[in-house]
Specification:
Length: 207
């Protein structure tokens, strides 16, 4: 596909995940910084994303929201970047990508809001308990160099972003396995470029 790629983002948001993913893909794109508040909730923006949130990617006529979906879409749309395993070997790739989008995000968000699931209610919650999620995440990042095996993939962009954010702000336990995994996935030129661009965009948001 040769359509233009536009990233709607804010450097103080999950848009950093999408920026990293696009930098990994290595295709030309334009970034539109969307301020929080009225601009992000405006009718014009909600016409594109009814949630009134970032990030969002527009690729020609295609609109993609939700970070895990953006990572998956870009990996599939630009296969030359090699960011998704062959379709016959995507079990771990899908498993951990959507584990992070579901149980991990929900457990961390609830814990950050001061809510822990009572033991007798854990069967009602998809992630069970925060402790189970942390133990499972440790398995995910320890079994192989990357979550889908020996090769870096879009799943590492998403899982690595969650771990990086969690370690920085204390919402994920500072286990050695998490620190080691983050060191591996963040030692990439695309990760560093994305952070430099988002850090520079902070001035635009502040202004």
């Amino acid at each position: 596909m040769t359509e233009s790629l536009v990233l709607y983002t804010n450097p103080m948001s999950r848009g950093r995940i999408a920026r990293w993913m696009i930098e990994e893909v290595g295709v030309p794109y334009r970034a539109e910084i969307v301020p929080f508040g009225p601009p992000m909730k405006s009718a014009n923006y909600r016409h594109l994303n009814p949630m009134g949130k970032v990030p969002m990617v527009r690729h020609g006529e295609v609109i993609v929201t939700e970070c895990a979906a953006i990572c998956s879409y870009l990996a599939d749309t630009f296969p030359e970047a090699g960011l998704a395993p062959p379709t016959t070997a995507r079990g771990s790739y899908y498993r951990w990508l959507f584990f992070a989008a579901g149980p991990l995000e929900a457990a961390v968000s609830n814990r950050s809001l001061g809510f822990d699931v009572p033991a007798d209610k854990q069967r009602m919650i998809g992630y069970g308990s925060f402790e189970d999620v942390m133990d499972t995440l440790e398995i995910a990042v320890s079994a192989n160099p990357y979550v889908a095996g020996k090769a870096f993939s879009a799943a590492d962009v998403y899982v690595g972003s969650h771990i990086g954010w969690g370690l920085r702000f204390g919402s994920i336990e500072k286990r050695p396995a998490f620190k080691d995994y983050l060191a591996r996935v963040s030692d990439r030129p695309a990760y560093k470029r994305a952070n430099e661009l988002d850090d520079a965009a902070m001035a635009q948001v502040a202004g």
